[in-house]
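[Discussion] Sanity-checking designs against the backbone

I'm trying to build intuition for which residues belong where. Below is a structure token string of 208 positions. I'd appreciate it if someone posts a full sequence so I can compare it with mine line by line.
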């Protein structure tokens, strides 16, 4: 929770569509105390323990998005305490360069079932991909845990990366890494900048 600061603005939406707005009051480990605005005090009274929320926090480092559960609420003080689940996913909008890419990779679901996939775009913070030979129905859901298997032909060595499905649109999946070491992340960064340089050269020489 290093990104959070007191008074960061928070917007929360429950699975039932209840919306709460407020600011960070305090935080420790994966728990966050949020002061809810008076205008949403009646909505706060509709919340029960263990209710799940989709949470968006405006931090100094970008937008942080996560799935959290309610630990408790103080209606008199308009406060709620939430805890991030262990599969918390994060989006740092301003931190990573994203670029279109086209390469094959294998992705496994939580039961280790493999899927042949193709990368659409990639950054050091996440990846967008499609599943080859997929039908009309999505094979993953938002917040699903996956394992991405990167190949040495693209990244100079084979390595795995845990991630979580963040968004699905038109059978295209966006996943954000949630367990990646700095060395493997640097390999992705080098690949991204390599593609960026090639694209700039292509534009300079009129290539498409």
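Best answer:
Here's mine. Compare freely.
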């Amino acid at each position: 929770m290093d990104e959070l600061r007191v008074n960061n603005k928070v917007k929360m939406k429950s699975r039932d569509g209840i919306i709460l707005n407020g600011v960070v009051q305090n935080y420790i480990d994966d728990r966050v105390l949020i002061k809810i605005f008076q205008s949403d005090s009646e909505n706060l009274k509709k919340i029960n323990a263990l209710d799940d929320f989709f949470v968006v926090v405006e931090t100094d480092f970008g937008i942080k998005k996560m799935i959290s559960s309610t630990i408790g609420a103080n209606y008199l003080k308009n406060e709620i305490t939430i805890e991030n689940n262990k599969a918390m996913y994060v989006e740092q909008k301003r931190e990573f360069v994203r670029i279109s890419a086209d390469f094959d990779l294998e992705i496994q679901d939580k039961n280790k079932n493999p899927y042949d996939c193709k990368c659409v775009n990639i950054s050091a913070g996440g990846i967008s991909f499609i599943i080859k030979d997929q039908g009309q129905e999505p094979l993953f859901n938002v917040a699903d845990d996956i394992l991405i298997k990167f190949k040495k032909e693209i990244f100079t060595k084979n390595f795995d990366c845990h991630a979580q499905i963040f968004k699905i649109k038109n059978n295209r999946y966006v996943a954000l890494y949630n367990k990646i070491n700095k060395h493997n992340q640097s390999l992705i960064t080098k690949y991204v900048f390599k593609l960026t340089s090639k694209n700039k050269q292509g534009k300079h020489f009129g290539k498409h």
